[in-house]
Write a structure and sequence with these properties.
The protein is mainly alpha-helical. It has helices at residues 2-19, 32-43, 52-55, 67-81, and strands at residues 94-98, 101-104, 110-112. Helix 1 runs antiparallel to helix 2. Bound molecules: zinc ion. The site of zinc ion has 9 residues, from loops. Residues 86, 88-89, 91, 93, 104, 106-107, 109 line the site of zinc ion (ZN).
Length: 120
């Protein structure tokens, strides 16, 4: 729904800049109407963070490698970057230090676990 609104607004904005008489065809000029439209779109959050709504941390790969592979990687990376409950002090401060090693930022205990999550 948001992506549709995004495409529609740019479809509306682009002809306004080029077709106005006396404007330089090479350089896009933001006239008052376009400026107001962009301002309204920004107010309604239509131009903000549309790109990373689904891809998350795998947005760094751009259009490469395909959606299925990136979705599988995203599931793993979300587990890997999450914070877990410490088995010693029970604070939610257990973070991944490296593959299989988990460090609690509360009591500074190091726990051996699985590579991408401390447990299943
Ligand atoms: Zn702890």
């Amino acid at each position: 729904m948001f992506a549709g609104g995004y495409n529609l607004t740019w479809f509306m904005i682009l002809p306004l800049g080029g077709s106005s008489p006396g404007s330089n065809p090479g350089i896009p000029i933001l006239n008052n109407k376009v400026y107001k439209l962009v301002k309204i779109c920004k107010y309604l959050n239509l131009l903000k963070m549309v790109k990373t709504k689904k891809v998350g941390s795998t947005g760094r790969f751009g259009s490469r490698y395909g959606l299925g592979v990136k979705q599988r990687l995203l599931a793993i990376e979300n587990k890997q970057k999450a914070t877990y409950e410490c088995p010693s002090c029970h604070k939610v401060k257990l973070k991944r230090l490296s593959s299989g090693i988990w460090l609690c930022n509360g009591c500074e205990i190091k726990v051996a676990g699985r590579a991408y999550a401390p447990w299943e």
